Task: inverse folding
């Protein structure tokens, strides 16, 4: 110790004008040191190597309540050497650098270990710096390595930021190397997420890859039964197979052998519209990735039309509002928007039929209250289907809505051919008997809600 002190520049204290400069000067030096940390060092060799870091109890104690209790509490540790086998040298050095100087060199390779030390020794200001670094550098390629630590350290802000990245970049996030390392609880949270920007078939492929990796790590043959056991029934029931096209289901899900014969049969009946019992899987759409196309450029409210308001007459000769729709790319149609009036309540029954194939696709009914549209002046409401309707390019689909309620807004100068989110739409008047007046350019159906993943 004497030789080390003798090598220190004389009168060094006079050249450090502040307490922070003086503590920074003695950082990682034997000078005045009264404790050492023995920490493992990363090495390519098979044996474990360690290295000493000199420190000063007083500096540590005024920076951390844990160190204060360790060195000056009732059960003070009198040892002058403390081993930290669960830590790593470079990270401990950065942690201590912050205690001595309020400075830290955070990198992608050390941030998790530094955050661990900041939490362990109750240094919230350093923990905040680590969390900010993670938030600033968070992306789909590393989100699944950061999320478990955010949950472990109960960092709700960082955890919420992780889920935002996953929701918006799910297609990229689930193909990252870290995805296969997540725990089943996190996999379940992903699968159950209502907001998830990914095609359902791609999410299934990721879950299947996760299960295969777990099988390999457990030394199991990655057959359908083994993968199903590892995934678990609870997660499997949350998979939204009905959001896939029949071709996607047949090409990828059936070949995985995860579903049993009965479940595959039920899904094929679902696609053929002959299923008489509910599917055992979740069917609700993932709402965050829903797109909304709008077809009108002008809107009329009740009482402003000299030719008569848009009304719904109940009687033997009254008819529904109908429209025909074609798309140039396959989409999942989630529902339709209807006009209404301020404070209005409407009872609606909506049906979608595939005119090309002559088959009914979906029927739904309910009572709806109007709200002001978020982007335009009119009032309306969304009629969402219990299960998405897959619209195939080239086919013609008729949408029929029987509406009962007060006079409503309506649209004029509708676009006949238009594009939204990369999908081309073509609307035309339906030849349905007793159509209430809706056509390609006038009337109801101001918007359609759909999924398209490109």
Result:
């Amino acid at each position: 110790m004497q030789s080390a002190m003798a090598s220190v520049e004389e009168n060094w204290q006079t050249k450090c004008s502040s307490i922070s400069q003086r503590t920074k000067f003695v950082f990682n030096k034997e000078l005045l040191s009264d404790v050492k940390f023995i920490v493992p060092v990363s090495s390519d060799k098979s044996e474990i190597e360690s290295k000493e870091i000199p420190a000063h109890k007083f500096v540590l104690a005024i920076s951390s309540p844990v160190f204060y209790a360790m060195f000056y509490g009732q059960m003070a540790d009198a040892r002058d050497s403390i081993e930290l086998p669960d830590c790593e040298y470079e990270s401990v050095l950065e942690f201590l650098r912050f205690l001595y100087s309020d400075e830290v060199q955070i990198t992608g390779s050390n941030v998790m270990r530094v955050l661990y030390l900041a939490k362990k020794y109750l240094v919230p200001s350093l923990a905040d710096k680590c969390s900010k670094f993670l938030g600033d550098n968070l992306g789909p390629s590393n989100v699944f390595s950061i999320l478990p630590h955010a949950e472990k350290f109960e960092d709700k802000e960082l955890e919420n930021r992780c889920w935002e990245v996953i929701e918006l970049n799910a297609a990229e996030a689930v193909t990252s190397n870290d995805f296969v390392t997540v725990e089943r609880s996190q996999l379940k949270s992903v699968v159950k997420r209502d907001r998830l920007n990914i095609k359902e078939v791609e999410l299934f492929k990721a879950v299947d890859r996760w299960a295969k990796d777990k099988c390999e790590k457990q030394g199991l043959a990655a057959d359908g039964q083994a993968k199903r056991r590892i995934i678990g029934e609870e997660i499997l029931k949350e998979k939204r197979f009905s959001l896939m096209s029949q071709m996607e289901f047949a090409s990828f899900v059936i070949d995985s052998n995860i579903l049993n014969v009965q479940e595959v049969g039920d899904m094929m009946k679902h696609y053929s519209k002959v299923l008489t019992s509910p599917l055992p899987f979740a069917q609700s759409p993932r709402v965050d990735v829903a797109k909304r196309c709008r077809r009108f450029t002008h809107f009329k409210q009740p009482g402003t039309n000299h030719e008569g308001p848009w009304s719904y007459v109940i009687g033997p000769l009254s008819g529904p509002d109908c429209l025909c729709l074609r798309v140039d790319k396959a989409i999942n149609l989630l529902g339709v928007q209807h006009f209404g009036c301020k404070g209005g309540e409407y009872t609606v029954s909506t049906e979608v039929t595939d005119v090309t194939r002559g088959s009914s696709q979906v029927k739904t009914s309910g009572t709806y209250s109007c709200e002001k549209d978020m982007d335009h002046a009119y009032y309306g409401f969304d009629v969402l289907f219990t299960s998405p309707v897959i619209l195939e390019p080239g086919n013609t689909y008729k949408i029929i809505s029987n509406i009962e309620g007060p006079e409503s807004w309506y649209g004029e100068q509708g676009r006949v051919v238009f594009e939204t989110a990369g999908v081309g739409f073509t609307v035309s008047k339906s030849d349905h008997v007793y159509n209430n007046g809706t056509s390609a350019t006038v009337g109801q159906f101001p918007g359609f809600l759909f999924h398209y993943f490109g």
